[in-house]
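Tip: read the tokens left to right.
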């Protein structure tokens, strides 16, 4: 697996697009890095940039961007709503794939040391990269902001981790670290009052508010036996929040950092802010995501809001995202474009034309062309996907059947399971064609000398084994998917029982078709023990699929008498 890390630097410029473009162009110049998102904010006068790549390339791109930002942004002239302390205010590295947090920390420290040494910018480490517990939190480091750091940096406890102990007026200081994936998320309010917005922020953020005697605003601060202020915790774990006024939109917002979306996901944060705002006589009108969001966050939100409506969550990915956007009000201030805001969509290689992205007519034409792929394997996977899609349809129809309101959740579970089978099979449509192409590539290898012949033979055998495993997986998924189809034939909407039956016919055909591919590819494999095991396994799957089809057709025949 390729090692990938994400970098999300925040630059203290959100108005001058020429400056922003010059900074981001430094990132785009570095090979091995992909710029995913540039999100400028006029009111905050801040731009959040997101890019991803190999660790070495990301660190090089981050260094170049920090250098350029220091050259172009003069902090002596900077004004904005967001707390800040430098031209590159914060630069986190986030492990994405194939790399541990410990390894990411090492890269963050290396980057910080280089920025301090070569650019003369004071650097503070934070989160996982900071060994001093008292200096891990970004808000603690940034307290006092740019204006207060001329004195703060001279304090013994605030010597930078790297770079000079003098605060440069032009660039300010930079915070570099390693952290988990963070979602920057703002909730819009129908008020212009920063004080009221802050009250809601204190209600929900994990740190809560300082406890006071009597009046919660002006009362004397309560302290513990050591003289430290006592805090009243907020209602949401792993959430940082403040209230501010956004002149650009003429509203106050709750600005949140969701530091662990497994603990507090976006939809829970939104609903909790709604409750706390309502208690204070304030309405939430919508929200906005700053930067990028994982696909899972959007899908989980869509399922959550559908469940609140007692509706089936076994709908398409596109529909779940649509529900999430509307429910969270993510399109109130600007259109929310999933293709530009969801990290997995941005990482997709759009240069490759996938079979599953074709129209039905395009797919049929591609299949009918003189090219040997897509062939029977891809078609088998697609037939299987269609079969379980019919079962999923029956589940969704049953979930909304009048008079069956108390059974919506039962059918929603089946519909979600059906979607999972369907999604797995749709991936196999392209996977089977990819397996065929691997064999063709291996056959195209040179075969001049003995060593080349040996390498070519090994490559062909490895590709052939893969071309056997792919249709075998199609057999397994298609056969397993028949549990959904059978359940819907037995307990689903009786008006759709024949749809379930057609689904069973498709699933069994997918199993049989994929098995033919297994067998023909197995003919070219030298590993006879592997072939013997695969054929034995395939025969058992085919027998199970045939039995399930017979059972489903018998149920259908009984119901349509």
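Filled-in amino acids:
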């Amino acid at each position: 697996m390729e090692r990938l890390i994400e970098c999300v630097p925040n630059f203290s410029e959100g108005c001058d697009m020429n400056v922003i473009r010059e900074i981001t162009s430094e990132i785009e110049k570095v090979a091995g890095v992909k710029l995913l998102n540039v999100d400028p904010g006029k009111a905050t006068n801040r731009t959040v940039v997101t890019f991803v790549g190999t660790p070495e390339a990301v660190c090089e791109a981050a260094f170049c961007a920090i250098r350029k930002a220091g050259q172009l942004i003069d902090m002596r002239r900077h004004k904005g709503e967001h707390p800040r302390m430098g031209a590159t205010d914060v630069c986190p590295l986030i492990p994405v794939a194939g790399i541990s947090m410990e390894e990411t920390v090492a890269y963050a420290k290396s980057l910080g040391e280089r920025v301090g040494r070569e650019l003369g910018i004071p650097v503070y480490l934070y989160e996982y990269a900071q060994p001093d517990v008292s200096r891990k939190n970004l808000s603690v480091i940034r307290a006092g902001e740019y204006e207060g750091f001329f004195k703060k940096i001279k304090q013994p406890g605030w010597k930078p981790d790297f770079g000079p102990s003098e605060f440069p007026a032009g660039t300010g200081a930079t915070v570099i670290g390693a952290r988990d994936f963070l979602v920057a998320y703002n909730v819009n309010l129908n008020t212009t009052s920063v004080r009221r917005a802050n009250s809601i922020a204190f209600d929900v953020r994990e740190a809560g508010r300082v406890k006071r005697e009597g009046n919660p605003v002006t009362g004397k601060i309560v302290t513990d036996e050591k003289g430290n202020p006592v805090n009243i915790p907020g209602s949401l774990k792993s959430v940082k929040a403040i209230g501010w006024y956004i002149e650009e939109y003429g509203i106050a917002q709750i600005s949140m950092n969701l530091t662990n979306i497994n603990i507090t996901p976006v939809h829970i944060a939104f609903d909790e802010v709604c409750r706390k705002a309502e208690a204070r006589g304030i309405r939430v009108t919508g929200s906005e995501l700053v930067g990028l969001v994982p696909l899972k966050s959007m899908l989980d939100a869509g399922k959550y809001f559908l469940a609140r409506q007692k509706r089936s969550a076994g709908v398409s990915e596109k529909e779940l995202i649509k529900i999430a956007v509307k429910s969270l009000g993510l399109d109130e201030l600007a259109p929310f474009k999933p293709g530009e805001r969801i990290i997995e969509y941005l990482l997709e290689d759009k240069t490759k034309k996938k079979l599953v992205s074709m129209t039905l007519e395009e797919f049929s034409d591609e299949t009918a062309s003189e090219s040997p792929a897509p062939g029977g394997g891809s078609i088998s996977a697609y037939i299987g996907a269609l079969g379980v899609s019919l079962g999923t349809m029956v589940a969704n129809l049953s979930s909304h059947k009048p008079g069956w309101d108390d059974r919506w959740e039962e059918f929603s579970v089946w519909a979600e399971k059906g979607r999972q089978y369907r999604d797995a099979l749709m991936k196999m449509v392209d996977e089977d064609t990819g397996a065929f192409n691997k064999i063709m590539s291996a056959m195209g290898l040179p075969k001049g000398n003995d060593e080349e012949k040996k390498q070519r033979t090994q490559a062909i055998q490895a590709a052939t084994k893969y071309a056997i495993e792919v249709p075998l997986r199609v057999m397994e998924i298609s056969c397993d998917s028949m549990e959904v189809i059978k359940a819907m034939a037995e307990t689903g909407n009786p008006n759709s029982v024949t749809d379930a039956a057609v689904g069973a016919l498709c699933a069994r055909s997918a199993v049989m078709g994929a098995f033919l591919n297994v067998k023909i590819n197995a003919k070219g494999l030298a590993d006879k023990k592997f072939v013997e095991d695969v054929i034995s396994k395939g025969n058992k799957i085919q027998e199970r699929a045939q039995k399930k089809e017979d059972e489903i057709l018998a149920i259908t025949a009984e119901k349509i008498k």
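The two ends are 55 Å apart (CA to CA). The longest strand covers residues 88-97.
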